[in-house]
Amino acid sequence: MELHSIDILIVSLYLITIIIIGLVLRKRAQKSKDDYLLGGKSIPWYMLGLSNASGMFDISGTIWLVTLMFVYGIKSAWIPWLWPVFNQIFLMVYLSKWLRRSNATTGAEWIGTRFGFGKGAKLSHIIVVVFALVVCLGYLAYGFIGLGKFVEVFVPWEMVSNYIPFTVSSEYVPHFYGTIFTLFAVFYSLLGGMSGIVWADVVQFAIMTVAALVIGYLGWQAVGTGTLAVPEGWMNPFMGELSMDWSKIIPQVNEKIKSDGFGIFSIFLFMMLFKGVLVSVAGPAPTYDMQKILSTKSPSEASKMSGFVSVILMPIRYLMIAGFAALALIYYEKLDLLNAAGDIDFELLLPTAINQFVPVGLLGLLLAGLIAAFMSTFAGTLNAAQAYLVNDIYLKYKNPEASSNQIKNMNYVTGIVVVIISIILGFFAEDVNSVLNIIVSVLYGSYVGANILKWHWWRFNGEGFFWGMVAGLVAAYFAPILFPNVNVLYLFPLLLVISLIGSILGTFSAPPTEDKILIEFYKNVKPWGFWKPIHDKILIENPNFEKNETFGLDMFNVFIGIIAQTTLVILPMYLIFRQSTPVYITLVVLIVCVLLLKKYWWNKLEE
After folding, report:
1. CA–centroid distance for 561 within its chain
2. 232: phi > 0 → left, psi -120 to 50 → alpha, else beta; which?
3. pLDDT, position 550
């Protein structure tokens, strides 16, 4: 199926729209550093929530999730816990409030509010900047390779090779396409800053919502009229193992399951939950998610924004994912999953299903939406990387008295440098899944120990944070080399222990953070945890000061929130595959969860 002129027109209109958004918001973005990096902290929470959801509706992730649902069925709802997807619930319930109360511009600037400005704090500041840039570059490379694979299906290389004055090897065709569309994302994100990103994201999410509803309907219709052949246990999210037997249906899927290496489902799920809870308690990684939280007007709006992300993202995204999985399963024989090297690549399920089943007009809309999804993730991540380079390196160490014009130029220069490096890294990425595993299992594993302690233990200092992060990052580098045949998820406990040892040894190698810094932090943020010595000192000055006693309530709300979020994932799957009884049960569970959260979370946000 070739692109129709209507489809090309729709994609072109989208690209023109985002260029206009960048140009229109350019002046506003140039007013100040906060206007450029945080939208002046004046953007409504629901707009930031839409933008954040849009950034998470990325093309590489969607390719991955369609592949997972095709292979593992309803059980695939659990695999995104690798991220972990439910970190948004921890943010919604209490962590976004804690983070926003700091009034910082970036996660590295936040370090000063927790550890002060001594030697340990400076070391912590540097290691956070390094970690943030590594994660940002990883995300950019991950999105880059996913977009290239996607576009290659719709624009075969033979269509454009005659117009290109140089030769491109077949394995680098996706990288070439990724580079071209990256340049559009760079344009509006560099010019418009956070405001430009948010408005472009809102346009993108509107496009994706329309496309998801139509794809969901097409999948639902196909299930009603076609023959669905799936292995035993595919429809059940709770029973059986991930290693289902596809040998009598599509034998090649068994090879895919073997290569994924997820192993015994119960152990895998336990490890995801164990890792996911700890990663969530550590707080947001210093990427676009953190920047959106810091851009909100107030702590309560930060909580609302994080909650809104799950409400609007999960049902819409999984309508599309389930719709495409249904179409791919029922009409599998019509799909061409051979990549340029002549091998079967199940990551081509999404683009080939679009190419095969989506009608003219909607194809253009869907292409525009999924290209926009890449740009949204790319632009938000690029903005976060710029924030760290400009705010936490240039303004802190190089030129603290920089003028607005110098800051503007530095934003442009750092943005271009980050993009060039991410494109180079993208050329070394094997596939979407490999980059994803490195980011969520290896890098995040190194991040967790120190970042849990920073919220919950008063004695933890800048030296502890620095050595905890260094120990984790070094372990994250060597662990996959030393254990090449072990799924990176199972390396998480090892990375966590090494990071915690580094954190504790580092902490006791130096004196505690100054009382003044700790008292100010504890009074502003009001975290729960091991803060008794600081709380006692505050009581001497202010006997009426009340400590945070909401740990039990927060954990209850987190538990209910995770159940609610999971129902929002599973409900569209059951709906598309016409499982009526599970749909009704899931709806009842969702309604009960919403009522509980209204009473015990939403109604208490302003307290």
Report:
1. 18
2. beta
3. 93
Backbone dihedral angles phi then psi of residue 2, each to the nearest 5 degrees: -90, 155
First to last CA, the chain: 57
Residue type, 13: L
The pLDDT averaged over each successive group of 10 residues in the chain (607 residues) is: 78 83 70 65 87 77 86 89 87 94 79 87 82 72 68 75 74 76 71 74 86 90 90 82 80 80 65 82 76 88 95 94 92 77 74 79 80 73 78 81 81 83 70 54 70 94 92 82 77 87 96 94 93 94 90 97 96 96 97 97 88
- Sign of the CA dihedral running 197, 198, 200, 201: positive
- Report the pLDDT value the prediction gives residue 34, as an integer from 0 to 100: 66
List the Cα angle 526/527/531 in 5-degree steps: 100
H/E element, 307: helix 299-330
Distances (CA, A) of 395 to 118, 405, 408, 409: 18, 13, 12, 13
Phi, psi at residue 531, to the nearest 5°? Answer: -120, 15
pLDDT at 23: 75
| Residue 344 burial (CB count, 10 A) | 14
Structural contact between residues 140 and 422, judged by C-beta atoms closer than 8 angstroms = yes
**Tokens in use for 599?**
């009473």
Q: Which of 185, 442, 202 is nearest to 312 (CA)?
A: 202
127 touches 506 (CB < 8 A): no
CB 349 within 8 A of CB 337: yes
Contact 561/89 with Cβ under 8 angstroms? Answer: yes
3-state secondary structure 497-553: HHHHHHHHHHHCCCCCCCHHHHHHHHHHHCCCCECHHHHHHHHHHCCCCCCCCCHHH
Query: By C-alpha distance, which of 566, 575, 571 is closest to 219?
Result: 575
SS3 helix, strand, coil % of the chain, rounded to 5?
A: 75, 0, 20
Please report which helix (H) or strand (E) contains residue 27, including its range.
Answer: helix 26-29
Strand pairing partners for 457?
A: 530
Could you tell me which residues come within 8 angstroms of residue 475 by beta carbon, excluding any fewer than 6 positions away?
445, 446, 494, 495, 498, 499
Query: What contacts 555, CB < 8 A, 6 or more positions away?
Result: none
Answer for the pair 439, 425: CB distance below 8 angstroms, yes or no.
no
Q: How many CB atoms neighbour CB 134 within 10 A?
A: 15
Is residue 97 within 8 A of residue 415, CB to CB? The reply is no
CA-to-CA distance for 93 and 99, rounded, in angstroms?
A: 12
Structure tokens belonging to residue 171 = 């394995």
Whether the pTM exceeds 0.85: the reply is no
| The two structure tokens encoding residue 485 | 């045949």
* Tokens encoding 163: 């117009």
Number of CB atoms found within 10 A of residue 535's CB: 16
Nearest to 137 by CA among 466, 409, 392, 439: 439
